[in-house]
Amino acid sequence: MNETLRARPLRLDTAQPDFEQRFAQRLHWSADTDAAIEARVAEILADVRARGDAAVLDCTRRFDQLEVTSVAELELGPEVLRAAFEALPAAPREALQQAAARIRRYHEAQLEACGRGWEIVDEDGTRLGQKVTPLDRVGIYVPGGKAAYPSSVLMNAIPAHVAGVPEIVMVVPTPRGERNPLVLAAAHVAGVSRAFAIGGAQAVAALAYGTATIPRVDKITGPGNAYVAAAKRRVFGTVGIDMIAGPSEILVLADGSTPPQWVAMDLFSQAEHDELAQSILLCPDAAYLDAVQAAIDRLLPTLPRASIIAASLNGRGLLVRTRDMEEACALSNRIAPEHLEIASREPRRWEPLLRHAGAIFLGAYTSESLGDYCAGPNHVLPTSGTARFSSPLGVMDFQKRSSLIEVSAAGAQRLGRVASVLAHGEGLQAHARAAELRLEAGA
Amino acid sequence: MNETLRARPLRLDTAQPDFEQRFAQRLHWSADTDAAIEARVAEILADVRARGDAAVLDCTRRFDQLEVTSVAELELGPEVLRAAFEALPAAPREALQQAAARIRRYHEAQLEACGRGWEIVDEDGTRLGQKVTPLDRVGIYVPGGKAAYPSSVLMNAIPAHVAGVPEIVMVVPTPRGERNPLVLAAAHVAGVSRAFAIGGAQAVAALAYGTATIPRVDKITGPGNAYVAAAKRRVFGTVGIDMIAGPSEILVLADGSTPPQWVAMDLFSQAEHDELAQSILLCPDAAYLDAVQAAIDRLLPTLPRASIIAASLNGRGLLVRTRDMEEACALSNRIAPEHLEIASREPRRWEPLLRHAGAIFLGAYTSESLGDYCAGPNHVLPTSGTARFSSPLGVMDFQKRSSLIEVSAAGAQRLGRVASVLAHGEGLQAHARAAELRLEAGA
Predict the structure, then answer these.
(1) What's the pLDDT tens digit per position in A178-217?
(2) Quick check: A366 and B412 CB within 8 A?
(3) CATH class for the domain made up of A3-31+246-375
(4) What CA–CA distance (Å, rounded) separates A66 from A44?
(5) How near does any CA of chain B get to the CA of A264, in Å?
(6) Which CATH superfamily is B35-116+135-241 part of?
(7) How far is B103 from chain A (nearest CA, A)?
(8) Which portions of this protein are annotated as coiled-coil regions (chains A, B) (predicted)?
(9) What 8-state DSSP symbol labels residue B355?
(10) Could you report the per-residue pLDDT of A133-185, keeping only the tens digit for each?
(11) Which residues of B contribute to the annotated binding site?
């Protein structure tokens, strides 16, 4: 085995006196932004806002080496998407359809459980409620090049579709004209309305501001590189955005009952994304950690992306022996991982102790990769500890709610007195008078 | 009447040939940020991050003219909040309690309707679901000075409380030591856990990063000035934030059946917030628009905040005659107003046509001010057209969701084949192998 292909995640024990310090150090990841990227992105956004299609064309020529004379030529029509789907061999075609069906079913259940309006009625006839409506038009960013993931197309477009969004606009860069047939086929399967072969900050700007050719959307979702992330952060407020993703992470809680090579492969499946991805294993059993390390050593050379996996595990990987499973759960809550596997015979015993995680994978058979592709729940999840306060992408991200308030004449008497007192207390007399006018009328 | 106290909202008719242009011009509001404020805020955030309490103290001395020697002295203990409540006269004390009870009830209904977990089970025993958990700790920013609104304390803290957040930390600046007793009393009523007399970007930084004295929170909500808004935007990602609010707006759809002076007062109640607030009336009946203008002329001099109201209506106010109510609804959807009153005899006839709004107030008795204080729904609403893609503050903003995935051995066979094909298609072989290992075992 090549020396560069050794993968040795940092090994810690919570009983070590310097555990806290070394643990914190290993978890540290800075989301600090790059000033040069920020400045470049600000320029591109301003240019697209001012010059529209012309700026998009210039950027696309320059960054994607695509020589076209109009943005219309960059549109990938429905027939292009359908043709990509129909040209696929049977296996990927059926896999896309099966994954899409399961993702659709999960998000339909989500819509049923949390995506509907409701109303309550007071004894005086006052009605209060909430109305839920889909967004009018959303944009989905799909990366091109090496990180071109058709599964991301399904995971972004299907919840929007289930939410009832009538128009879903996809953008995907095609550097030097290279199109990814699986991405285009996934767009067909997922019900994308329009697609454009553009990318980078210029694509985000086009979706946020609109151009003569590209329609302005209400929200932009989907992953991208540092330029795309900076652009999304800047247009937030003009449009909605999903989240700014950091490196991907997996945390495995193991009680020693899952085959070590399964856990090793699950750690690899995170590490193979990129060098900054983080794979963590927590287990009370030191011998099990040894067994997983042995499986890592044995399996690593068999994988095409071994060098990325090794870089990730050597730089950011972590195997921690904990006092017990309870301590492992507490550590996991501090990390708030994006993906959390409970590799245990009793996953439902530990699940209630786990408060912060994007997705929780229960039991030995639930590899993260099943969730990534086809179990049904969304694979767009909060990273870098943001599961403390944010949630997987879902149907609700493609809807918005409006409060409904209908106060009866009788209700206006009761509420008007309260509002009048509080409004005067805040020095807002017109607020008070508006309530009082209704009081007098209904008295 | 003083000449400066004339309030003449711009009068338009959709039949005018230049209507579109004048309408768009009047709606225009730029959310462009101020570079000097941005730079100052970046400095303050970095300083608090590096020096913690010492930086908070320096800023508080400098900006709030408060000479204290430790941040602990700035804590407003529960006994301070309770004393403020108990010292209130009966009328505001009861008004606060009644408002709080109604806000609590509405948000409990919201929790019941949309804030619970759920699960579905496949025929092969695979279980998929969603777990809902409250955030651990949230921060609520409450402005001091002229815009000190106790109602905002209720509207931010109560949904967090109902969501089950165990710790709610309030910050409120007290320039030169001036405390607003209603704000402190509202904090007592709303169940705030801890409160600090700090404000500005330094308070946002302290909540986002934590200091020796001030606990780090997971999310910061609540309104503030340009410095607070810039700080919230910058810490977004480190913590969650609610939204960046623009100027407040009301749009009234009138069919002519509501007393014109009621509508005039409702327009005032928005305009009195500040000069940039926007009040818009849409109505098919020109005579009714005349009657509202006459009511404006008559009522304006009777209001203490007449000069702010006049500045707002003269600068941004708008009375539009539409062809019919349908056209008025379509125009309203283009604006996506924060507050939308349907001043009509048939509010439920028009409500289904209205797709974008923060809150919809139905019928003549439902003045916006009732909703602002005590109807029950939240008064923290999306402004500046962001109701196209965002929602009122609510219980869900203080919870997060985690996907739950438990694949059975049988399920792993079915799903593993699909995942394997898609993972190979994306060039992620460790993902494929992780699925395949479970295939072999379960075969």
Answers:
(1) 999 999 999 999 999 999 999 999 999 999 999 999 999 9
(2) yes
(3) alpha beta
(4) 17
(5) 9
(6) Nitrogenase molybdenum iron protein domain (3.40.50.1980)
(7) 11
(8) none
(9) -
(10) 999 999 999 998 666 789 999 999 999 999 999 999 999 999 999 999 999 99
(11) 141, 202, 225, 248, 270, 273, 339, 372, 426, 431
